[in-house]
Design a protein that fits this description.
Keywords: Acyltransferase, Transferase. The chain is built from 5 helices and 7 strands; from the N terminus they run E-H-H-E-E-E-H-E-H-E-H-E. With 168 residues, the protein is α+β, with helices and mostly antiparallel strands.
Length: 168
């Protein structure tokens, strides 16, 4: 079992996992997904076991208290003080094996190593409880820009944040 940076050959497996995991939103385009990787390749990972991609996580710098709209395509990202988990998905065949926990812990380590002040994300499909187990807390005081971004996700979309000093 191995967590490693994404390579170009991983995208068919990543897109298949995305297709299998999301039912409340339309899957994002390959261009959108790859743009996160291209602007922050050091923080985008796959979980591989016996040569098979079992999960992925796409993260990139972003501002605390904000999130990009779903299906956004980036060409660059301005200086940002926080890391943002854009997407994390575990193949149905690997769920329940602790893969998600390993990926989250890896992202927290990356965030700390790179000196970010915390990590933001948008939880969907009832995942808020999962993220709270790692110390992420819902943020209720939202800007108009964040509210607009949330509207591009599912009805249960919730912005959450984990300050670096609270990371477990």
């Amino acid at each position: 079992m191995n967590i490693r940076q994404i390579t170009a050959k991983d995208w068919p497996a990543i897109m298949a996992i995305q297709q299998n995991c999301y039912h409340d939103i339309a899957p994002e385009s390959l261009a959108s997904m790859q743009s996160k990787w291209l602007v922050s390749p050091d923080s985008c990972m796959v979980y591989e076991h016996q040569g098979q991609i079992m999960a992925y996580v796409l993260t990139h710098p972003w501002q605390k208290g904000d999130a990009p709209k779903l299906n956004s395509v980036f060409t660059s990202i301005e200086n940002s003080c926080s890391l943002y988990i854009h997407d994390m998905a575990v193949s149905p065949c690997a769920q329940g094996l602790g893969v998600a926990k390993k990926l989250v812990n890896h992202v927290v380590q990356i965030s700390t190593t790179l000196g970010f002040s915390g990590i933001g994300l948008i939880a969907i499909q009832g995942a808020s409880e999962f993220w709270q187990r790692f110390g992420f807390q819902p943020v209720n005081n939202m800007s108009k820009q964040l509210s607009t971004s949330l509207a591009s996700y599912s009805d249960d979309a919730c912005y959450m944040y984990l300050p670096a000093d609270k990371a477990v």
